[in-house]
Amino acid sequence: MTLTELLESRTSTRAYMAKEVPSETIREIFTTAQMSASNCNTQPWHVAIVSGDKRERLAKELVALVSSGAQPNPVFQPGDYGLADEYKQRQIDCAMALYDAVGIDRADKVARMQLMLKNFEFFGAPHVAIFSMPQAMKEVNAVDVGIYLQSVMLLMIERGLACCPQGALAFYPDPIVDLVPIPSGNGILFGLSFGYRDEAAEINDTRTQRANFEEFAQMIS
């Protein structure tokens, strides 16, 4: 696949088969992504890849915590904080596309809650990667981690895998830090659930729109 084909075929997958990805494939993907660019070659990312029994325990603890009504306590400011105008509308449109794909009425708060909790079950994916960086670092360093994430996602698509980047996994860091070896002083930025796509799941038919060139770019001469 060309890079264009990879970008056009990538979607955020929210339902997976139980089949695990071979450990050598996982290692190859994250090692190859290490060639990603970063400011002054600082490579500020740390990745903890959780599978098996530890993944099951983490999902149960996160779901229990979120269901209890606990307030989020992310280390870094969430990406949906203070959204307005077209940015807020795109967030709403994304949510509505997901609800429509699985037949949830926007007024059905119970069904919406159940769908939201799937974030913390990693959408059934057999693996979840937790991305963190030193808490003392700032937005520019987070851009570097995002570059690395994009490399990982495209390498996964190239190998026939599916994935979903999840900012929500940074909202409740305590159970993750208790169970996963996050370096001291690091804060969680986001997670990435991944595995093999469940082709029969309706939610995987969800598609979101992208802004056209004139909406986000200017050519100046």
Structural descriptors:
NADH Oxidase, single chain, 221 residues
Walk me through the structure.
- The chain has one domain: NADH Oxidase (3-Layer(aba) Sandwich).
- The protein is globular and about 50 Å long.
- The chain is built from eight helices and four strands.
- 41% of the residues lie in helices and 13% in strands.
- It is of the alpha+beta class and 221 residues long.
Topology diagram in text:
Elements (H helix, E strand, L loop, with lengths): L2 H7 L13 H10 L13 E6 H16 L17 H18 L6 H9 L9 E8 L4 H20 L3 E5 L6 H7 L6 E10 L17 H4 L5
Antiparallel strand pairs: 1-2, 2-4, 3-4
What's this model, at a glance?
The chain is of the alpha+beta class and about 220 residues long.
CATH top level is Alpha Beta
Count of all domains: 1
Main beta sheet: strand number and arrangement? 4 strands, antiparallel
Total helical segments: 8
